[in-house]
Specification:
With about 400 residues, the protein is an alpha/beta fold. Helix content is about 35%, strand content about 20%. It has two domains: about 180 residues, Rossmann fold (3-Layer(aba) Sandwich); about 210 residues, Glycogen Phosphorylase B (Rossmann fold). It contains 13 helices and 17 strands.
């Protein structure tokens, strides 16, 4: 039996954290591997039951075994605790999740004879280059959640070692059963959907402009935007300024995302940066066509023209504030999958989005896209296939 030590942050609920929790709940590698976790601080209560199911031990680097909290100014003591835990557990390998520039990541693997494996899920875009370079020198393999992530870690951070793409899967908790291809309900307004953290990076400020443009073209429509964040008021104010506030619904956090996808007709992911794009495959799993920005890993989540549309971002970031958004939190560089290079970020034109929607509802292809989306998700983003591939990529490095 092999022992695998995981280092990751689990005190918030995000894509990485939820994926890990569901892997543990599904007893990933249980036949041959025992899982141990080093987390920064307390695990989010919604994740804890699933993680307990699949792990043999959980340790916290910000707390001593007695429960005493280690303050930030005693960072050296936290690093010593990482080393102490790994020395005591003697794992066959260390798996660091999306934290390549944290000193704790490297400290966790310091006294381990086995390989250090890194799971890249978007940290490479913002990581401190110097600290990341030190960490990556000790990494045996990087497992990337998209081709875009692989290229960013290579081009931005100069990594030349072993790297493999293992696309994020459709998680069991969001998987839909017995979903049939959908048709547009022409007897009611077209309902556009979007979901995520309400920050400038997600590009949601563009969506009220899309609704306004569609209404000008005689398309009866409305927007349902799920999520919370600092851009909420800006989005509502933009809708009011455009005179469409009654067409925009913002319900906050939605726990039952399956019902959300079933109640919207088209999902839009207008992100300025997005390492992969879970919302895109989740929507497709419910037969909902998706329109995404052709940046970073988003185009990898669909088949352009067959299951949805990936539109090239064309608008300079300097113009984003004119649409009502803030301009904070925007990265210096993003990955252009068409040119295969890092480039300055841009955002989608609302006109391009609305034109694509008009073409979609006018050419009779909606049902065809819906059927293809359902098929594509099952074939390319199976949770079982992800488990098998990730298992192979990790265990073949065990000594």
């Amino acid at each position: 039996m092999h022992h695998l030590l995981h280092y990751l942050n689990l005190n918030v609920i995000g894509g990485v954290e939820t994926l890990f929790a569901e892997l543990m709940q599904e007893r990933w590698m249980a036949e041959t591997v025992r899982h141990h976790v080093i987390a920064g601080t307390n695990i989010h209560p919604d994740l804890l039951p699933a993680i307990h199911q699949g792990t043999e031990s959980i340790e916290y680097i910000k707390h001593l075994s007695s429960g005493v909290y280690i303050p930030r100014w005693l960072r050296g003591l936290r690093l010593l605790r990482c080393k102490s835990i790994s020395r005591r557990l003697k794992p066959h390998a260390v798996l660091v999740w999306n934290a390549l520039d944290r000193r704790e990541s490297l400290a966790t693997a310091t006294h381990v004879d086995g390989p250090l494996i890194y799971m890249e899920h978007g940290a490479a875009w913002d990581a401190n280059r110097n600290r990341a370079a030190v960490f990556l020198k000790g990494v045996r393999r990087v497992i990337c959640n998209s081709h875009a992530s692989r290229r960013v870690i290579q081009e931005r951070l100069g990594y030349t070692g072993s790297s493999v793409v293992c696309h994020n899967p459709l998680r069991p908790s969001i998987r839909a059963e017995n979903v049939r291809p959908r048709t547009l309900p022409y007897t009611q307004p077209l309902r556009l959907g979007a979901a995520g953290r309400l920050i400038p990076l997600k590009g949601f400020i563009l969506l009220p402009h899309v609704i306004a443009e569609l209404l000008k073209q005689g398309i009866d429509c409305e927007l349902v935007l799920a999520g919370t964040g600092p851009e909420r008021e800006a989005i509502l104010n933009t809708a009011a300024r455009l005179g469409i506030e009654e067409r925009v619904t913002m319900p906050g956090i939605i726990k039952d995302m399956g019902t959300f996808y079933q109640r919207v007709d088209i999902v839009i992911v207008p992100s300025i940066r997005e390492p992969f794009g879970l919302v895109s495959i989740e929507a497709a799993a419910h037969g909902c066509p998706v329109i995404v920005s052709a940046v970073d890993g988003l185009p990898e989540t669909l088949l352009h023209g067959k299951t949805g549309f990936a539109l090239p971002p064309t608008e300079p970031i300097a113009l984003l504030t004119r649409f009502g958004s803030g301009d904070y939190g925007i990265p210096d560089m993003v990955y252009d999958p068409h040119e295969d290079r890092l480039t300055r970020p841009k955002f989608l034109s609302p006109k391009a989005i609305s034109t694509t929607i008009i073409d979609l509802i006018g050419n009779g292809s909606y049902a065809h896209l819906s059927a293809n989306a359902l098929k594509d998700v099952k074939e390319r983003f199976s949770f079982a296939k992800y488990q098998e591939k990730a298992y192979s990529l990790v265990t073949e490095l065990f000594q």
